[in-house]
Design a protein that fits this description.
The complex is a heterotrimer of chains A (459), B (192) and C (395). With 459 residues, chain A is mainly α. Chain A is built from 20 helices and three strands. In chain A, 49% of the residues are buried. Chain C has two domains: 67 residues; 288 residues, Neuraminidase (6 Propeller). In chain C, the strands form six sheets. Chain C has a four-stranded antiparallel β-sheet. Chain C has a four-stranded antiparallel β-sheet with strand order 2-3-4-5, with no helix packed on it. The radius of gyration of chain C is 40 Å and the shape is globular. The chains are: A mainly alpha (459), B alpha+beta (192), C alpha+beta (395). Chains A and B meet through helix 1, helix 4, strand 1, helix 5 and helix 14 of A and helix 1, helix 2, strand 1 and strand 5 of B. The structure holds iron/sulfur cluster (SF4) (5 copies).
């Protein structure tokens, strides 16, 4: 890696280096060598060329398109699988996972809050494109493009069903994590989502011991629990989930009709397939739900207020993440005994970097205030997320068929083939082999017999 | 009345809501894109060390996600004094001015010393060995001309979204620079 | 909820808009087993939502409780999660340690600081002391004449930044980067000498009875002038044939001093020594050795300044470890005037990343009583150092 043509660099870049040197001020001259020795040029090996970055964007868009095609047109789990293998290799192991939308919300937040930071085009596209696709076609990005998802998906050997209460309980985490990521990024101190990404150290095969351990933990867990990071943590997944809740098209187990044979029920390792829910027989049955809904709606502001308060309280210690605050805390807090006088990097900073204690302290106070202000917002967001989740639980869905939950479905395509009607549609089974389907089929209009996508658009 | 609607057309209402929120989401996304557009940079950004802010704290060697670090010592030859007793090369109190390992400051012997002519020596960094610890940089700044300095080497750097050294750097020396100007080379003694 | 209930629900209120063909429902009806509820599940619909909601609320309450409990704990968590998780408060394993040299043994210190005053001009570079005991300080774009107590006697504005100054009777000489100017004591310019050729960078001046020596760091030579500005010779130039290495100057810090006895003393920083030349240019002797220890010259290029004591001893100034020391006439270490502990700020700036090696360090001048005036170029302080006991000096 390091041997990538040094001399080539120096040749290519000596021009550029000369341009920088041109701005150098007059300086004390180096010795004039009588032997005529020429000063070497400082080499400047270039970063990846810009077109490489644009190539990444192209690959992303291509993969997104292909994923949609595979999920909606071809309806082929195998194609999706191969595409995800490709994505894992390209975005994961080749690009080392650091050109990914998962951390992009932080860049966007920083872009909004830090006037000095301009979001690079590539990052912006990586942030927006999958969301845009999700608004139309659901989480096809997660299906086969995201390397994190692909890794977990491919590792899944023996899925275990997660109890629904855990599932619902944890489902608020991604939003909170997203909120925290944006909170810290906007406060200008850290990209926590990137810092605690469990898989990127694995893609790079290097990183801190803690993160490698956490990554290994996730890897072991994802052998038994489908996509644990995606379901319970991924902050970008939270955005994608929201987008796909309102998507134009949705993933269907079969474009044909559902006979409620329940064969697909267990086919989703991510617990995304929902059972049919008939409309209530009697409106009176709805009354308790209504009451609860009303209660929650009323309680919502209180919930938000409580969490905002907690957020505000937690934000003060969270400010310690900021280097200036921790510097002030550690070295300048008059209430604390001064630290031992060993030259540590931080004491160096105080000593050398023209940090005078007064300004460090006032900066720290300012940052703390900023954090606790942001803490209100963050806490409020947590309250809102939990409240909305509660409300959504009181809302009564109406479903005629077995169908994947819009938000939770990763569009992986596993369920397609478990549906006998899908097999019939593809001609893999004869209708006579599917007892439940038979009568229904005989009733479908003959025109639609070959391609029955339309007749029952329940949504 | 609401009851009525609920019973007769829940799905259409849902559909309508969904469509509405989709349009809203699209608008929102468009808004974000529009707002971003005013701050957009066609270029990507890469991390670089501002040598004027670096404190040679040693974290560049320990905090990078790569081992050895993507930060290396580089030499601005035009600033160098070509000293015989290079304080970036030799330990503070060398036994003798030779290349014996115990006289070398660099923990990995990454600096090569070459005689040019009496009494001048040229020092070059073997970047395959250098771990970016900054020890030599400190020695050179302390006593010499400060011609050695640390830079993120972009043939190695993975360009993490947030550089792990950057968040640990006590001098706040790391910053994002446009990919077309990926180095902050030391070329003069300009202040600030 | 019994299965029949479910069926009838589906049947009784057919939903015209959900597009489900009624036939399909009837198909369900015909296959009662199919529509039987999954045995493990509590119920479909309302029952289930209520069930998981209760759990959900319970779970969130637990989370809330944990959050409340952890309110204090978070402090420490965030502190740990803060910068530099591992190397937090630990020493830099790669530290460049010279602190053992930064403290001077008090037994070696032969001077005490009598007083200290601030330089009236910014960016002071070098100074000289005239016969009237006044300090001539070159800095910024002027020469400040300071009384021994620190009050300003006069200020002479200049067109360019002066690098150095030398004082004779009635006149003083100001060294600019590439030429020398002569001023009367009242500040009137009397002469402008010719601009030097090559790569001039004059950093030291000294004046004798009827000649003047200028240390040109750029050309790495000492120039011998007649007092009318004519160049009478060049001393110490590099000459490989003759085996003369010449002045080795990584930074512009060449200094020259003379007592007017036909011998000049020049520092050769790159070789860590003080060299004595005859005015004709012959190297008479030299002394000094590189060492960070107190008796040697530290770093790669020291000393950077010289001054001569009336009794024949030398005062040397160093950068890196900013210290001022006295050597006897034979070049043996005598005592310390002031050690690095007296110039903390200077040391700090010297280790800085932006420091211009020409702008850091110290300069010294000696008055007729043998007091040493030390100029700290970084802080602009002038330390007046007087010998602890006269007997020390006679050693
Ligand atoms: S949920 Fe997140 S990690 Fe999972 S596939 Fe989607 S974007 Fe990737
Ligand atoms: S972490 Fe910062 S201060 Fe420390 S060596 Fe690296 S750039 Fe310099
Ligand atoms: S100390 Fe610095 S300036 Fe002096 S020779 Fe070494 S690298 Fe060059
Ligand atoms: S001392 Fe450290 S920074 Fe300098 S060359 Fe050696 S490893 Fe690299
Ligand atoms: S961006 Fe990543 S690889 Fe590059 S120097 Fe920083 S931590 Fe190392």
């Amino acid at each position: 890696m390091t041997m990538r043509g040094r001399s080539f660099y120096s040749l290519m870049l000596s021009g550029a280096a000369a341009a920088w040197n041109a701005v150098a001020e007059q300086r004390f001259p180096p010795p004039e060598f009588e032997s005529g020795h020429q000063l070497p040029v400082t080499t400047v090996p270039p970063p990846r060329a810009l077109w490489h970055e644009y190539a990444d964007v192209a690959v992303l868009l291509l993969c997104l398109g292909l994923a949609c095609y595979f999920v909606y047109r071809r309806r082929s789990r195998r194609s999706v699988l191969w595409l995800s293998v490709f994505s894992l290799i390209y975005f994961g192991f080749y690009r080392k996972g650091c050109i990914c939308p998962i951390g992009a919300p932080q860049n966007v937040a920083l872009g909004f809050f830090d006037p000095a930071y301009a979001v690079p085009l590539v990052v912006a596209v990586f942030f927006i494109a999958p969301l845009l696709v999700a608004l139309f076609a659901g989480r096809t990005f997660c299906a086969a493009v995201c390397p994190h998802g692909a890794l977990q998906d491919l590792l899944l050997v023996k899925p275990v069903k997660v109890p629904s209460w855990i599932e619902t309980g944890l489902s608020v985490l991604p939003y909170i994590y997203l909120g925290a990521g944006v909170f810290f990024a906007a406060a200008g101190s850290a990209f926590v989502i990137c810092r605690y990404d469990p898989f990127v150290p694995f893609f790079r095969l290097s990183g801190g011991l803690t993160m490698l351990t956490v990554g290994a933990g996730f890897i072991v867990v994802s052998m038994f629990i489908g996509r644990p990071y995606c379901r319970f943590l991924c902050p970008y997944g939270a955005l994608l989930r929201l987008a796909s809740l309102v998507s134009k098209w949705r993933v269907r187990i079969t474009p044909d009709f559902c006979t409620k044979c329940r064969l697909c029920e267990e086919s989703c390792p991510f617990g995304a397939i929902r059972e049919p829910v008939p409309p209530p027989a009697n409106p009176v049955e709805l009354a308790p739900d209504r009451r609860r809904l009303g209660l929650f709606l009323i309680a919502m502001p209180a919930l938000i207020a409580v969490f905002a308060f907690i957020g505000n309280r937690v934000a003060a210690p969270a400010a310690l993440v900021h280097p200036t605050v921790s510097l002030a805390e550690r070295y300048l807090d008059p209430a604390k005994p001064p630290p031992p006088k060993v030259p540590t990097p931080d004491s160096l900073a105080l000593e050398r970097a023209d940090h005078d204690p007064a300004s460090v302290l006032s900066d720290a106070a300012r940052i703390r205030r900023r954090f606790s202000r942001a803490g209100w917002w963050f806490g409020g967001l947590v309250g809102l997320v939990i409240g909305v989740r509660l409300i959504s639980l009181t809302l009564r869905p109406v479903r005629a068929d077995y169908e994947p939950d819009r938000g939770a479905c990763f569009a992986c395509g596993r369920c397609f083939m478990s549906c006998p009607n899908e097999r019939v549609r593809l001609g893999l089974l004869s209708p006579s082999e599917v007892p439940g389907a038979e009568p229904a089929r005989s009733n479908t209009p003959p025109v639609a017999a070959g391609y029955i996508g339309k007749p029952k658009t329940a949504v | 009345m609401a009851e009525q609607e609920n019973r007769s057309a829940p799905v259409t209402r849902r559909d309508f809501l969904r469509q509405g929120s989709r349009v809203a989401a699209l608008t929102g996304l468009g808004g974000v894109a529009g707002l971003l557009a005013s701050k957009l940079k066609a270029e990507t950004l890469v991390w670089q060390i501002d040598p004027a802010k670096c404190l040679r704290c040693g974290r560049c060697a320990t905090e990078c996600v790569l081992k050895p670090s993507a930060v290396k010592c580089v030499h601005a030859f035009a600033l160098c004094g070509y000293c015989e007793l290079c304080t970036g090369y030799f330990v503070p109190e060398p036994n003798e001015l030779n290349t014996a390992a115990e006289n070398q400051l660099c923990p990995v012997s990454a600096i090569k010393r070459r005689w040019i002519e009496d009494p001048y020596y040229e020092y070059t960094i073997d970047e395959t060995l250098c771990i970016g610890c900054g020890k030599c940089v400190e020695g050179c700044h302390r006593f010499g001309n400060g011609s050695l300095f640390l830079q993120v080497r972009h043939n190695l750097c993975l360009n993490c979204n947030e550089c792990s050294i950057a968040r640990a750097c006590p001098g706040d020396a790391f910053r994002r620079v446009p990919v077309s100007q990926p180095y902050l080379l030391k070329t003069s003694y300009s202040h600030g | 909820m019994p299965a029949s209930d479910q069926q009838s629900t589906g049947h009784d209120s057919p939903n015209p808009n959900d597009g489900t063909p009624v036939e399909e429902m009837s198909a369900l009806q015909k296959n009662p087993e199919r529509s039987k509820l999954p045995s493990g599940s509590m119920a479909i619909g309302r029952g289930q939502t209520a069930f998981s909601r209760r759990r959900f609320i319970g779970g969130q309450c637990a989370v809330l409780g944990v959050a409340a409990l952890g309110n204090i704990a978070t402090g420490s968590i965030f502190a740990v999660a803060g910068r530099g998780t591992r190397s937090d408060n630990s020493e830099n394993p790669f530290a460049y340690r010279v602190d053992r040299f930064e403290q001077t043994d008090p037994k070696l210190i032969g001077y005490v600081e009598a007083r200290r005053f601030k330089s009236p001009c910014a960016e002071p570079r070098r100074m000289a002391i005239g016969g009237d005991e006044r300090i001539y300080l070159a800095g910024e774009k002027r020469i400040c004449v300071i009384r021994p107590k620190g009050s300003v006697a006069a200020e002479i504005g200049l067109a360019a930044p002066p690098q150095c100054v030398a004082v004779a009777n009635e006149v003083f000489y100001v060294g600019f980067k590439d030429h020398i100017e002569v001023y009367a004591a009242n500040g009137k310019r009397k002469a402008v000498w010719e601009t030097l050729e090559g790569n001039p960078y004059i950093t030291g001046l000294t004046v004798a009875e009827n000649e003047l020596f200028a240390a040109d760091s750029g050309n790495r030579v000492v120039i011998r002038y007649q007092l009318d500005g004519k160049i009478a010779g060049r001393i110490g130039a590099r000459d490989r044939e003759a085996g003369m290495v010449g002045f080795v100057l990584p930074s512009p810090n060449l200094d020259v001093e003379t007592r007017g006895d036909g011998v000049i003393y020049v520092n050769n920083p790159g070789r860590h020594r003080v060299e004595c030349y005859s005015v004709a240019g012959d190297l008479l002797k030299w002394w000094g050795k590189p060492s960070a220890a107190i008796e040697g010259f530290c770093g790669c290029c020291n000393p950077i300044g010289l001054a001569l004591l009336p009794d024949g001893r030398f005062v040397t100034c160093e950068k890196g470890l900013p210290r001022v020391k006295v050597y006897n006439a034979n070049g043996e270490f005598d005592c310390v005037v002031a050690g690095p502990e007296s110039f903390r700020e200077n040391a700090r700036a010297g280790a800085g990343s932006t420091s211009d090696p020409a702008r850091i360090g110290l300069d010294a001048a000696v008055d007729s009583k043998g007091n040493v005036y030390v100029l700290d170029r970084v802080t602009g302080n002038i330390h007046v150092m007087v010998p602890k006991a006269k007997s020390d000096g006679a050693r």
